Amino acid sequence: MLLQNSVNHIKEVNDKYKMIKTEKKIIIFLCLIYIFSFCFPSNLLSLTIGEEKKLAKDYMGKIKKSGLIVKDPIISSLVKNVGKEIAGVLPPQPFKFSYYVFNADSFNAFATPGANIFINQGLIAGLDNVDELAGIIAHETAHAASRHVAQLIDKSKIVNLASLAGVLAGILIGSKGNSELSQGLSMGSLAAGQSAMLTYSRAHETEADQKGFNYLTKTSFAPEGLLNGLKKIKAADFYGTEDIPDYFKTHPGTTKRIKALENMLARYGQRKKSNKIKKTKKDYNFNFIKYRIIGLYQINIKAEKIFKKLLKNNPENPACNYGYGLLLTRQLKLDKAKKYFKKALSARPFSPLILLELSNIYLQNENFSKARDILIDIKDDPVVSMPAAYLLGQVQIALNKPVKAKANFEKIINQPLIPYPKAYYYIAKIYSQNHDLGLTHYYLGYYYFNIKNKKNAIMHFEKALESLINKKKIEKINSILKELKKH
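^ thats the sequence. predicted structure below, dont judge the formating
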């Protein structure tokens, strides 16, 4: 027991250390992004659609390399599906709207050039329902549709670059990276006196509220969610007070905006009543995914407290039991996790989300047949299809079905954002069993490249070149090796 406690303590320390490292990365990364934006050529009077698309491509390249996007297909399905419904009510747009979950524990969301929208995992964990999430996503969608980010970049060309500190601070405070650093950057911006920039920002927040509200009235979501989400942002402001000036905040002017939204809601309520507007509610697995985030991403001690409190008040809640089961799985307490997953399943029979986690428990316990039977039943569900393919591939390797296993792992590596890099490792294992050294090293190279192990990636790619004859694969390897050896 003492040994286990020591192991758990070490794990907690490691979790906290990883969180600090992640938040430092967020600070550095966001600084680089905004410096990059504000150094855009100043001889241009406006940012064209083509230029914004190029800028967006550069942004996304850096973001993907940063490792700060949550790649869990189940978690990302929530913001993608909510975002898709909201973007679907917009008139034709020059950009494809894309929605991502950002791996930050703070209560924030932001839009970047080219209609790429990010929702912090900490924000989702802090909301109460899908309407609140939809409200915030609608607001950020409005920023993107109005090209506010592009306008901010244009505006920055004619103001003193000292105002950059204020913009950085707003983002950094919202990302809860390092409060002392964020405050320092904010204070440094005061000397610039760039009130035009600050007014501009408040005006855009109001416009995004108005447009976002109108989008929501045309969807299945209740527009009250935008108001409630904004109230939560207000409550989560720096030090939880309104004493901090608006221009230090990611979403300024919340008090005035709340009053404006209350007036819009009152008018909408009257219109809804007179026109007998009815909506078909969509949930998109909000509670399950919220508790998945807490179970998989919150620090162990914090998550444990949350679930124990929730389950004390509502011990039969399937989403809470599911989330706690995930936390226990993460702690390698598989038997205890299985108990909570089964409890969740008794309240929500046939739930693919719960069945997926039970199959993982059976896989870890080497009950391969039982795991396979569950996974075959749920593999076509759109939300769990990728993790199901990944687990099924592992089961098929154990059951000596390499051809089927390879087909499942190839589904994983063909995704734009590869959720499970170890799929490359398993494919390499299959080729190794077939004594194909070229492809074994090729896929091992990709595995180490994706987990950022530069030394092993270079070694395996160079070994692959000794045996491979496929020209396309050789070209890919040479391109990656060039990049790896450049840094």
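The first strand starts at residue 98 and ends at 102.
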